[in-house]
Amino acid sequence: MKQDAMHDETRPSHWEQHALNWRHVGLPLRPAGQDVRIMESLLAVHLDQAARVLLLGVTPELARLRWPDRTHLLAVDRSAGMIQRVWPGDALALDAQVIRGDWNALPLSDGCRDAVIGDGFYTPLAYPSDYHRLGRELARVLRPGGLYLIRAFVRPDAAESLEVIEADLLAGRIGTVHALKWRLAMLLHDDLATGVRLDTVWRLWDALRAQPAVADRLRQWPAEEVATLEAYRGEPGRYTFPTLTELRAALAPDFTELDCRVPDYELGDRCPILLLKTR
């Protein structure tokens, strides 16, 4: 029987592959120094000492933030590979632990956390159902008025064309393959109920790199970073990229927005940092 290319059982899962590729993933898919500084400035104003913080995922840049004194950090990730390969562990200069778990069924009592923080974690979720479900669970474990600090990925209000992306790529106006990856994904994004299938992103990418001029441009980027797009090949999972307005609408039932900062690096306008609190 011919193996279905969409279901190769020999390859790692999407998140296990992400863990393997982590050291080759860069801006804007991972937080930049500017993101770190913005988050630290917000925490310095709004978070008290001895805070109990929940980290969604194991993003090292967030785990290593300059936290208020006596902060306790609990990280939760469902991927064993991400925990094993990405979690900074003993290198952290604070009281921290990591557990494997489901964000929608956290093993935590009501109101036991002062803050929740995370990076880019809405993207693999279905909109709006999974956004609302997660919001309810996080509001449950946060104390009244607890903080919610996130960096999210949003698509622009006006969709760009493939011609614009190609022109920017050939003119050297796209700084990293990761920025290209996100622009292609957002270009292909259907309505929010559908999102974008990762294999569809790979197929467009594969067609682009077959062009000699594009292939020449790609050789100017580290081969290991370019190769991270292969994780999308045959991947049936979907990503969702709401606009900032749509993201706010999904957060509104459980949270009140306190601040929104937009970094000025490439695609920074698609990576807003929001500080919210429970209603």
Describe the structure.
The model is unreliable at 1-10 (pLDDT under 50). The protein folds into 2 domains: 33-154 and 242-278, Rossmann fold; 156-239. The chain has helices spanning 14-21, 33-46, 60-63, 80-86, 129-141, 162-170, 177-187, 198-209, 212-218, 223-226, 244-251; strands at residues 52-56, 72-77, 95-100, 113-119, 142-151, 196-197, 238-239, 255-261, 273-278. The longest helix is centred in the first third of the chain and has 14 residues, at 33-46. Helices cover 35% and strands 18% of the residues. The protein has 11 helices and 9 strands.
Write the layout of secondary structure elements.
Layout: H1 14-21, H2 33-46, E1 52-56, H3 60-63, E2 72-77, H4 80-86, E3 95-100, E4 113-119, H5 129-141, E5 142-151, H6 162-170, H7 177-187, E6 196-197, H8 198-209, H9 212-218, H10 223-226, E7 238-239, H11 244-251, E8 255-261, E9 273-278
What oligomeric assembly is this protein in? single chain
* Average pLDDT metric: 94
Q: Calculate the terminal CA-CA distance, rounded to whole Å.
A: 55 Å
Residues in helices, as a percent range: 25-40%
DSSP helical segment count: 11
Shape: globular
Q: Helix/strand/pairing class, anyone?
A: alpha/beta
Can you tell me the CATH architecture of the largest domain? 3-Layer(aba) Sandwich
Largest sheet: 7 strands, mixed
Q: CATH superfamily assignment of the largest domain?
A: Vaccinia Virus protein VP39
Stretches where pLDDT falls below 50 for ≥5 residues? 1-10
Number of DSSP-assigned strands: 9
Strand content: 15-25%
Q: In what order do the strands lie side by side in the largest sheet?
A: 3-2-1-4-5-9-8
| Secondary-structure element string | HHEHEHEEHEHHEHHHEHEE
CATH topology of the largest domain: Rossmann fold
Question: Any idea how many domains?
Answer: 2
* Highest-level CATH class of the largest domain: Alpha Beta
